[in-house]
Design goal:
single chain; alpha+beta; Isoleucyl-tRNA Synthetase, Domain 1; OB fold (Dihydrolipoamide Acetyltransferase, E2P); six-stranded parallel β-sheet; six-stranded antiparallel β-sheet; 22 helices; 26 strands; globular; binds ligand ME8
Length: about 650
C-alpha cells in the first residue's frame, strides 16, 4: 500500500472573492500535492471555505441576501477559480456542510467531557474582519486590531471558554521537542514567545448573532468561527463518521497557512486536539504575504489582483513558475508584473525554450525526428550526466523542505548547462562527419534525456509545460518519479514539433495587466522622462470611495474641525474629522455624498479619531467639498 500524504490550505473566508494573495496558499499547496503524487504517495489535498461568523453575516446583509444563499454563490466562485487555476484538491470542504457541523458539535462535546469547557463572562475587544479576540495590550491606545489595523469592538457577553491555559506546558514541550512542528524557524520562535508569556483561556462561543454552529445543549450560543473553522481539517477526512478514512490520512503532514493565522494553527489547534484526545498535525508552515509596494495584497486595502487576468495574459504555468521562483517561500515578496515578464523572457523563453527548440531542431535534421540510441559517453557527457544526477538529488531535498526557489534554481543550472553542452559538443559539426555518427547520436540522446528529466522535475510547478515537453520528445504524458533517473528515456521515439512554449514578450507591443492597459512603449518612455508625473499604479495606491454623511457635529474647542459619521457601504461606517467647520454648517452636510480617501492611516485630532479624509477644492478662501452629480451608492469606488 502507498504511503499517504495529507496537505491542507486554510479554508477561505467567503465574504469576498479570492485574489492573487489568497490564491498563493492554494497554488503552493497544489505544487506540494502534485509533487507528492509524482513521488508515489496517496495524497489528500484539502481546501474549502470558512462560511460562518459575523463578518460573513454582515457581507450577506450588505448584499440583501440570506447568509446561506450568499455562501452558496461565493463558494461556487471559489470552486470555479480553483478549476481555472488547475488546482487538484481532492475535496472542497464548506463549514456549512451538515457533516462538518455535526463534527464540530461532536468535537466540542469531547472537549467538554475532558473538563476543558466552562461558562464565564467575556468582556473585551473583538475585530470582526479578523474574527479575533484581542487583549487591551494587543490593541494599544489606538484600539486598533494588531493584525489588520482596523477598529476593534468592545464585546460583553456570557460565553463558553476553552481552558487553553491548561495546555501551555504541553505546547511548550511540543515546541521544544519538535522544532519542525512550526516552520520557518522565525515563525516558530514568535509562537514560542507567546507560549513563554503564557496563554489565556479562549472565549469559544458568541450570543450576539446566530450564523454559526449551535453549542451542543445550549443553542443560544454559536461556536466561535475559528474553532468551527479549524475542525474542517478533520471533518473533511471523516472524523468521526468515517474513522477508517480519518485514520488513513490523519495526522496531516502539513498545514500550509499565511503568517497572520499562525497563532490559531500552531497554538489553539494543537491544544484543541489534545483536549479531544486526537493526534497533532506533523507540521504547520506559515508563509509570508504577497505585497504590492510593500503592502499586503488584500481586498479591503483595495489592491487586490485578480489571478485570472494574469493567467489569461501570461499563462497558468508561467504565473505559477514566477510565484514559486521569485517569492522565497516563507518570506514576504512583492508581486511585480515586470519581474514576472523577466522570468518568462529569461528563464522560460530563453533558457528552457531554447534548449527544447535546439534539441528538436537537431534531432529532426540529423536523425529524421527519431531519438537515437546513445553510444559511449565521453568526458563532456559524463560531466552532464553527473550534473543531472546531482540535480535530481538536490531537487528532491529542496522540494521536501518546501524550498521551491532553490529547487527551481537547481533545475535551471541543468537547463543552462544543457545549452552549454550543445555549444561544447557542436553537433552541427559532427553532423557533417559520417564517422562521427555514433558520437552525434550520443549527444542527441543526452539532450533529449536532459529535457525529460527537467520536465519531470518541473511537473509539480508547471504541469502543462511538463506534459507538452513529454509529448514533444515522443512520450504520452509525464510519468512518475520512478523514472526520475538518468537513462530511462527510450531510444526510437518520434519527436513532435510545435510552436514555442513561451514566446518572448516584446515590451514595445505588450499590454500590461496591472498598468495603463494600452500604453505603448514610446508613450511610456515619454512619460518616464517627465519627472513630476506619477505612474498610474502610484495613483492606484490611494483608495477613493463615495461616502454618505450621516451625522456632523462641531468639535468643542476647535474652530476648524467637524466630526463626521460617514457611511462607506461595504467598508461600514467611519468617523472622519475634517477641517471644514468655517465653510459649512454641520446640518447642511447631512445626506451629502462626498469623496473620501479611505486607506489613510488613522489619526487623532483634538482627541477624536479620524479614519480617512474628505476631498475638497480650495479657491482662495473658499472651500468646497467634492460631491457627485448623480446618485451613487455609498462605498462606490472611484478610479
Ligand atoms: O484566514 N499574501 O481566511 P482568509 C499571501 N478563514 N497570502 C495571503 C494574502 C497575501 N496578500 N492574503 C491572504 C482565513 N492570504 C481563515 C482561515 S483556516 C481554519 C481559517 C492567505 O480568506 C492567508 O494568509 O483571510 C490565508 O493563508 C489564506 O489566504 C486565507 O485567508
Amino acid at each position: 500500500m502507498k504511503d499517504t500524504f495529507y496537505v491542507t490550505t486554510p479554508i477561505y473566508y467567503i465574504n469576498s472573492e479570492p485574489h492573487i494573495g489568497s490564491a498563493y496558499t492554494t497554488i503552493v499547496a497544489d505544487v506540494v500535492a502534485r509533487y507528492k503524487r509524482l513521488d508515489g504517495y496517496d495524497v489528500f489535498f484539502l481546501t474549502g471555505t470558512d462560511e460562518h461568523g459575523q463578518k460573513v453575516l454582515q457581507a450577506a446583509e450588505a448584499r440583501n441576501m440570506s447568509p446561506q444563499a450568499f455562501c452558496d454563490e461565493l463558494a461556487g466562485k471559489f470552486q470555479k477559480l480553483w478549476k481555472e487555476l488547475k488546482i487538484t484538491n481532492n475535496q472542497f470542504v464548506r463549514t456549512t456542510d451538515e457533516i462538518h457541523m455535526n463534527t464540530v458539535q461532536h468535537f466540542i462535546k469531547k472537549m467538554k467531557e475532558n473538563g476543558d469547557i466552562y461558562k464565564g463572562q467575556y468582556e473585551g475587544w473583538y475585530c470582526v474582519p479578523c474574527e479575533t479576540f484581542w487583549t487591551e495590550e494587543d490593541i494599544g491606545k489606538e484600539k486598533i486590531c494588531p493584525s489588520c489595523g482596523r477598529e476593534v469592538k468592545r464585546v460583553k457577553e456570557e460565553n463558553y471558554f476553552f481552558r487553553l491555559s491548561k495546555y501551555n506546558d504541553a505546547l511548550l514541550k511540543l515546541f521544544r521537542e519538535n522544532p519542525n512542528f512550526v516552520q520557518p524557524d522565525f515563525r516558530r520562535n514568535e509562537m514560542l514567545k507567546i507560549l513563554e508569556g503564557g496563554l489565556r483561556d479562549l472565549s469559544i462561543t458568541r450570543t450576539s448573532f446566530k450564523w454559526g454552529v449551535p453549542m451542543p445543549d445550549d443553542p443560544e450560543h454559536v461556536i466561535y468561527v475559528w474553532v468551527d473553522a479549524l475542525i474542517n481539517y478533520i471533518s473533511a477526512i471523516g472524523y468521526p463518521h468515517d474513522m477508517e478514512k480519518f485514520e488513513k490520512y490523519w495526522p496531516a503532514d502539513v498545514h500550509l497557512i499565511g503568517k497572520e493565522i499562525n497563532r490559531f494553527h500552531s497554538l489553539i489547534w494543537p491544544a484543541m486536539l489534545m483536549s479531544a484526545g486526537l493526534p497533532l498535525p506533523k507540521q504547520v508552515y506559515a508563509h509570508g504575504w504577497l505585497t504590492v509596494n510593500g503592502q499586503k495584497i488584500s481586498k479591503s486595502l483595495g489592491n487586490a489582483i485578480d489571478p485570472r487576468e494574469f493567467v489569461k495574459t501570461y499563462g497558468n504555468d508561467a504565473v505559477r513558475y514566477y510565484l514559486l521562483k521569485d517569492i522565497q517561500f516563507g518570506r514576504d515578496g512583492d508581486f511585480s508584473e515586470e519581474n514576472l515578464i523577466t522570468r518568462i523572457n529569461a528563464d522560460l523563453a530563453n533558457d528552457l525554450g531554447n534548449l527544447l527548440h535546439r534539441t528538436q531542431a537537431m534531432i529532426k535534421k540529423f536523425n529524421d525526428d527519431i531519438i537515437p540510441e546513445p553510444f559511449e559517453n565521453d568526458t563532456v557527457d559524463k560531466g552532464l550526466i553527473s550534473l543531472a544526477k546531482k540535480t535530481v538529488t538536490a531537487y528532491k531535498e529542496y522540494m521536501d523542505k518546501l524550498k521551491f526557489t532553490q529547487a527551481l534554481e537547481t533545475i535551471w543550472e541543468l537547463v543552462k548547462y544543457g545549452n552549454k553542452y550543445i555549444d561544447l559538443t557542436e553537433p552541427w559539426k559532427l553532423g557533417k562527419l559520417p564517422d562521427k555518427k555514433e558520437r552525434l547520436n550520443t549527444v542527441l540522446y543526452n539532450l533529449a534525456e536532459v529535457l525529460r528529466l527537467v520536465s519531470l522535475m518541473i511537473a509539480p510547478i508547471m504541469p502543462d509545460t511538463a506534459n507538452e515537453i513529454f509529448k514533444r520528445i515522443g512520450k504520452q504524458a509525464v510519468e512518475n518519479f520512478e523514472t526520475l533517473e538518468w537513462g530511462r528515456l527510450e531510444a526510437g521515439l518520434s519527436i513532435v514539433h510545435g510552436s514555442p512554449l513561451f514566446p518572448r514578450i516584446d515590451l514595445k507591443e505588450h499590454r500590461w495587466v496591472s498598468r495603463v492597459s494600452e500604453e505603448s512603449a514610446s508613450e511610456k518612455a515619454e512619460i518616464e522622462e517627465t519627472a513630476n508625473l506619477i505612474e498610474i499604479r502610484d495613483f492606484a495606491q490611494v483608495e477613493l470611495r463615495i461616502g454618505k454623511i450621516l451625522e456632523a457635529e462641531k468639535i468643542k474647542k476647535s474652530k476648524k474641525l467637524l466630526k463626521l459619521q460617514i457611511d462607506l457601504g461595504d467598508l461600514g461606517r467611519r468617523q472622519i474629522v475634517a477641517g471644514i467647520a468655517q465653510h459649512y454648517e454641520p446640518e447642511k452636510l447631512i445626506g451629502l455624498k462626498v469623496v473620501v480617501v479611505t486607506n489613510l492611516k488613522p489619526a487623532r485630532l483634538m482627541d477624536e479619531e479620524s479614519k480617512g479624509m474628505l476631498l475638497a477644492a480650495k479657491d482662495g478662501q473658499k472651500l468646497t467639498v467634492l460631491t457627485v452629480h448623480r446618485d451613487v451608492e455609498p462605498g462606490a469606488k472611484i478610479s
